[in-house]
């Protein structure tokens, strides 16, 4: 439980969770949304994964991340982000990306 609270204590990690609310993104796509180095984003992702809030899957040369939907902490964080003026737009972007990803996989298109 301590690792979850430590992971959620960071605004950057809460934003990453919001981006992953409805879509999976590779580490580069996540890093492109922040003004920090890729190694710093990788450290944040490792903390989130260590807390069980996200899962990763290597596909080719990319590592894709998605929220662990079975985590109570993610459920609670999602609720808070819905009313948060910072988190809500990020979750809306995630929902739009999720729809695009589902449409792409339904039509047989591959991800990047």
TrEMBL record:
Transcription regulation is among the record's keywords: yes
SUPFAM superfamilies reported in the protein's UniProt record: Winged helix' DNA-binding domain (SSF46785)
PROSITE patterns per the UniProt record, alphabetical: HTH_ARSR_2 (PS50987)
One Pfam entry name: HTH_5
CDD domains in the record: HTH_ARSR
Domain of life: Bacteria
UniProt feature coiled coil, ranges: none
Record's keyword annotation contains Transcription: yes
Domain HTH arsR-type, residue spans: 1-87
Keywords recorded for this protein, A-Z: DNA-binding, Transcription, Transcription regulation
Stored InterPro entries: ArsR-like_HTH, HTH_ArsR_DNA-bd_dom, HTH_MetalResp_TranReg, WH-like_DNA-bd_sf, WH_DNA-bd_sf
Protein name as annotated: Metalloregulator ArsR/SmtB family transcription factor
Species name: Methylopila henanensis
